[in-house]
Every structure is written in structure tokens, then in C-alpha cells.
Amino acid sequence: MINSKLPDVGVTIFTVMSRLAAETQAINLGQGFPDFNADPELLAQVDAAMRAGHNQYAPMPGVPALRQAISAKTEALYGASYDPETEITVTSGATQALMTAILAVAGPGDEVVVLEPVYDSYVPAIKLAGARPVGVSLLPPTPGEPTYRPDWTAVRQAITLRTRALLINFPHNPTGAILEDADLDELERIVADTGVLLISDEVYEHIVFDGRQHASIARRPALAARSLLISSFGKTFHTTGWKIGYCCAPAVLSAEFRKIHQFMVFAVSTPMQHGLAAFLGDPRHYLDLPAFYQAKRDRLAQGLRQTRFRTLPCPGTYFLLADYSAISDAPESEFARWLTTEHGVAVIPIAAFHGDPDAPGSNRQLVRFCFAKQDSTLDAALEKLQAV
């Protein structure tokens, strides 16, 4: 028999709901992936790279042209200068980057603080490193503050002498919360007082709405100096299946990151890296993304106003939360299954992002809709939801 390293981990909620959607032929607004293709120009760039012979191993830290493009983009957006030679590493998606970062900074006896609701890969990665995850709940929505937000006092109280890192994720999946300048101020004080490292998952950095700017940790030199910043081209360029991400970090942290990276995957897809490097030459491809997704957010939110769901504000990501308390008092997982099987629309329960999904405090009668879909998909889903 195998002595499982993750005895409490089963199939993820995304797999469960997507499988149920397929079995019932429901419209899948659960799992976070677009149902439309990438820009034809990007596909042409990858095709050209393949035909040009870029089909063998890439350099371990990534194709130089892509690392240089990432460096230029990050400096232009946030004013942070990362050396493409020593401080930027291209990874097999953000999930691999997160696992590598955690393994690089934490080990047996260490602690890593995470914010709940927490994306499902964080806690298993921390446990595989031999460390202990310490959950701190985000402040839940209230009538006066209708979005989730960090409780920095509770975060500070959770940090001990064993804490090696604080793992943050903004814009936040699953709640859509974003950071403000005041939050970066609090983070600076926490880092200065405790010496903790930051792992900042910023894969939705280009999906922030209503004219707001993404509050990247790269905007603050004091934070960037102690942080591993992780992002992904999958969310930005509608290519989640390519699994191309990256990590920006000071040279001393990047050196430890690369030690592990080289033995996890060594390098990632060469022609896709060349294609992405060329595509990044035009910043409009990511600067126009907020308007593109804001139109979809507003389409879904407006349609849901014709239903018995009550939407919460969505300042970032391509996920919209909705309160179903006017429809049912069932726990979130039960309601999500019922909505999928009886009304043909798959969603994700927010309770699934908590350490104990069945706890009363984890169930706030909220579900997550993904609006990274064609307008026709959203309209078909809304027609079904109006009948609930």
C-alpha cells in the first residue's frame, strides 16, 4: 500500500462540476476557462515559430526573448525592473510556479499563511513541502462592504516565528476582490515588522474593472524585494491549455526557485514561448483586456438581475459571485449540484474554497459564475437561470 502524502485530498471541485456538467449537458459556467479561441495573430506567431525550427528544448529559465518581454511589460506597468537573466523564470503555468515557489521557501516545521476562501492548489502544495498551511479568513461581504476584503490584523496575528511566507492572490479567485493602495501599505508594514516572504499569485493582473489599476506587489520596492511574483499567459491570452506562466523574483530568491524548477519540468514549450514573446510586442493585447471582460461581466450581471440571484460587485477576475438565498436555503455544494442537474447551468460553490466546506461559516449561500464565455453561451445560460 502507498502511504499517501495527501490523504485528505480527493478530486477537485472543478473536476467534479465539469464532469457533472458534461454528464447532464449543462452549460459550464463553473470551471474558469474561455470557450473561445486565442487571437489568430498569436496562433500565427506560434505556427511561425514551429516552422522556423523552434521545436527543441528551451533554455531552462525560458526563451531569452520572452523573459525580456516580461521584464519590459512589468517595468512599464508597475515600475519594477526585473533582470531577465537572473530574476525571471518561465514556468509550466502558474500552478507549477506556485508549487516551485512554495518548495523553494518552506519545508518541514515551517508555516505558510493563506487567505480563505483559498484557491485549491495552495494547501496541497504547502503540505507536499512538509510545511503547515495556516488559514486566515477574508472579511466576508456585508451590506456596507459588499465585497470580500483582507483582514490584515488577523493576518498579522497568524504570523509566528515559524512562518516562512504569506501567500496572497489578487485579483482574488474565487471572490473577485482586489487590493487597494492602503492594502499595499499594510503589507509593507507586515513585511517590515515580521520579515516574512510574500508569494503573490497575480494571474488576473490584466482583468481589473471600472478604471481601477491592479495593485501589484511590484509597485512597491520594499515588497518586491521579498516577493515571488507569479503570473500566467493562460488567463491573459485565453490559452489556459498552453500552461505557460512565469515567476519574477530577486536574484537570490530566483536562484532557489530555479534549483527546483529545473528538476520539475526543466523547460516549457519552446514554440509557444517564441510566439508569446512576439505577441507581447503590442501592449494593446493586454491593455484592452479589462474592457473586453468588463462587457462580459456587465452582460452576465444585467441578465442575472432578471433572476432571483443577487449579484455581488466584481472588481476583478472573470468570476462573478451571486447570492442564491432567495431561491434556496440548501448548502452551497448541494445547491450547485441541483442547479446543474435540474436547470442545466454548472457553477462552483464558494464553500469548496474553505478548509472545511461543510462548516456553517463556509456556507454563505454564494456560488461563482465564470463569464469568460462567448456572448451566446452567457445568453443561453441566462435563459435557463431566469426559469429558476
TrEMBL record:
Record flagged with keyword Nucleotide-binding: no
EC top class named in words: transferase
Cofactor: pyridoxal 5'-phosphate
A single MF term (Gene Ontology): methionine-oxo-acid transaminase activity
Record-linked SUPFAM superfamilies: PLP-dependent transferases
GO-annotated cellular components: cytoplasm
UniProt keyword annotations, A-Z: Aminotransferase, Pyridoxal phosphate, Transferase
EC number: 2.6.1.88
CDD domains per UniProt: AAT_like
Domain Aminotransferase class I/classII large residue range list: 26-385
Classification via InterPro entries: Aminotransferase_I/II_large, Kynurenine-oxoglutarate_AT, PyrdxlP-dep_Trfase, PyrdxlP-dep_Trfase_major, PyrdxlP-dep_Trfase_small
Highest rank taxon of the organism: Bacteria
Pfam families, A to Z: Aminotran_1_2
Family per record: Belongs to the class-I pyridoxal-phosphate-dependent aminotransferase family.
Name assigned to this protein: Methionine aminotransferase
Organism: Pigmentiphaga humi
Lineage: Bacteria, Pseudomonadati, Pseudomonadota, Betaproteobacteria, Burkholderiales
Gene: ybdL
